[in-house]
Each structure stands twice: as structure tokens, then as C-alpha cells.
Amino acid sequence: MSTKEKVMEELLNSDDYISGETLAQKLGVGRNSVWKAVKQLQEEGFDIQAINNKGYILKSTGDILNREIIKSFLDKTDDREIIVLDETDSTNNYAKDLARKGAKNATAVIADCQTAGKGRMGRSFCSPHGTSIYLSIILRPETDMETCQLITSCAAVAAAQAIDKVCGTDVKIKWVNDLFLNGKKICGILTEASVNFETGQPEYAVVGIGINVKSIKNIFPEELMNVATSIEDETGKAPSRAEIIAEILKNIDILTKNLSDTSFLENYRKRSFIIGQRVSVSKLGSEKTALAIGISDNAGLIVRYDDGTEETLNSGEARILPPLHF
User: Fold this and answer.
1) Greatest extent of the chain over all pairs of C-alpha atoms, in Å
2) What is the CATH number assigned to the segment(s) 3-60?
3) Which of its termini does the chain have fewer beta carbons within 10 Å around, N or C?
């Protein structure tokens, strides 16, 4: 860790003033190095108060995305690699590059802004600066590709539980990868994987999670405002992004530890609001109307078409249709 990161860690763990001399002794650096580190942190937006003969105290972290702040919400024994970027094209792209170079399981990549965020089906993902969570997690599942298909559903439950815990909300899931609050989308999830063609086993998976946290009014394009919202726009409060990220990381660890344990699907089904609704199923370039009737044990959407036949969808898309009026 750099001196700046070490100073940040000490300030986060203290409820009282710490003198520059104490910090210097603890960290094995000169007092001038401590002063420079504090100055850097203040310039980054941290509310650090400095008083003569008392030292430094962190009054507020605001909502700045910072590795040490995120780690302060995790267990002390959590030694995962956390990379925080001001800007990148896509956290999934960044994470995949790390995975190809051998990055460990549970490595997390977070950005304050994406210039080319990705959604499912090749869509773009609106990613303005300083408003949202853009998080990608590297997983190295020791299982087959069929079981790996559960990762997106695991991530949906993990993110929904995290938001509910921090914000006191009741987040719902729209199959397969969208989270909704009060009928509008607040989160999208995209999982990408690399497969060893000789063994048929996954080499790694990267699960990307994008959550609208702060108000998106006057920020998102007008065409998205009818379908998208944010936590702040629905609750009136903007929660700590760092705390939500930490909760997601903890939940993902638990839920993906043994992907063959599908007990998480009970929570997924309870949160699903697509069941019982008429949907338009898009698959292989065609669209058919159906009724969504359930979630299978491999997280597929079970639908009944108008001709009475049933199918379990493991890919494609299901768009909720307006209710019929007679």
C-alpha cells in the first residue's frame, strides 16, 4: 500500500484525532510524508480536519469511491484485490484482461465512470460519472459451464439483498438480469466467461453489476426515464456506494462458493415479478407471446405459449406486456 492508502486506513479506523507524529511512527515514514498524504486525500474530497497539537481526524468520507473505504465495510480477514478506477471503458473489459493475466478469484474492479458500459444483447449501458456503481467481479468457478449459468441469478440475488440491507428497500428481479424498484429498473447484470475448449470447463467468469444510486434526473437520456430510476429517486436518500459494494462482494462470495447449491433460487423466485405476467419472448430473431409461469431449478424462465405448449428459457429475452383488458 502507498503512504496515502496507509494514512487513509489509520484515519478510517480511528474515532479520535491522530497526531502526525503518531501516524509517522506507526507507518515508518517521515511527518512530511504524512502531511503530503493528508493533503492528497483532502484534494480528492475527503473531509479531514487538521488541528494544531491534536492532529488529524476523518470527519466524513462523503460518497467517494476508495479501496480503503470499501475494505472498511469488509471483514478484516478479507484480502481480495480491489481496484478502484476513476474512469474506464468497461469494468468487465478491465476485469477480463486481469483474469487473462491470472488475477485471483473474487478480484473486484470498480469505476466511477464507464465510457463504453455494456449491457446484454450487445446494448450499451448508460454510465455517467459519480452517480452509480459499476462493479465487475472475477470468479474462477470449479464447475461445468451448465452450472456456471447460475452466476447471473446468484449475482441478482446478491445485489438485491445488498441494496435492501443498506437502503431498507424491497428490490424485485426481472428475469434474468434486471433489478427493479417500484416498477422501474435500477440495476443491470452482465456475465461473461472464457471456456477451455479442450476440457469444456470455464477458465473464469466476470460478472458485471451496474446500479443507479444517485438521482438520474436530468442525467439519463429522456427515452430511459420512463423505464429507469435510481435508489435516491425512489427513496429520497443516496446511500453509500462503498457500503453497497462491500455487501455485494460478501453476498457473492457466499452464493457462488458452491454453485450446485441452488437454495438461493427460493429468494430469486420470491423477488421475481415476472411470474404470472404476459411476456413477449424474443429468441433467435422471432417473437412469441407467452405467460411466464415459473423459474426452473437452473434459473430458466418457464413460459406457456398461447398454443398451450411450455418451454424453459435459458437464453433470449422476455419483455413484460401490458395487461389485457376485456
Assistant:
1) 80
2) 1.10.10.10
3) C
- Which CATH class for the 67-271 domain? alpha beta
278-320: CATH topology? SH3 type barrels. (2.30.30)
**Of 5-9, 58-62, 74-78, 144-148, which has the strongest mean pLDDT?**
74-78
One-letter amino acid of 218? N
pLDDT exceeds cutoff 60 at 3:
yes
CA dihedral (203, 89, 5, 14) positive or negative: negative
Distances (CA, A) of 266 to 146, 176, 255: 19, 15, 12
pLDDT digits (tens, 9 = 90+) for 93-123: 999 999 999 999 999 999 999 887 766 545 5
Dihedral pair phi/psi, residue 101, rounded to 5°: -90, 5
Helix, strand, coil distribution of the chain in percent, nearest 5: 30, 30, 40
Domain map of the chain by residue range?
A: 3-60, 67-271, 278-320
Residue 119: the pLDDT is: 60
What nine digits make up the cell of 205? 467468469
Distance of CA 16 to CAs 49, 53, 67, 131, 298, Å? Answer: 11, 13, 22, 30, 51
Q: Residue 173 is which amino acid?
A: I
More confident residue, 35 or 324: 35
The predicted model gives 308-316 an average pLDDT of: 93
- Residue-wise pLDDT for 155-206, tens only, equals 999 999 999 999 999 999 999 889 999 999 999 999 999 998 888 889 999 9
Q: Are 110 and 135 in contact (CB under 8 A)?
A: yes
Look at residue 326 and tell me whether its pLDDT is greater than 60: no
Cα distances from 92 to residues 59, 218, 229, 295, in angstroms, run: 34, 27, 23, 27
CA distance 221 to 55: 46
Rounded Cα distance, 101 and 129, in Å: 28
Angle between helices 151-167 and 241-256 (to 10 degrees): 140
Q: What is the Cα–Cα distance from 225 to 5, expressed in whole angstroms?
A: 38
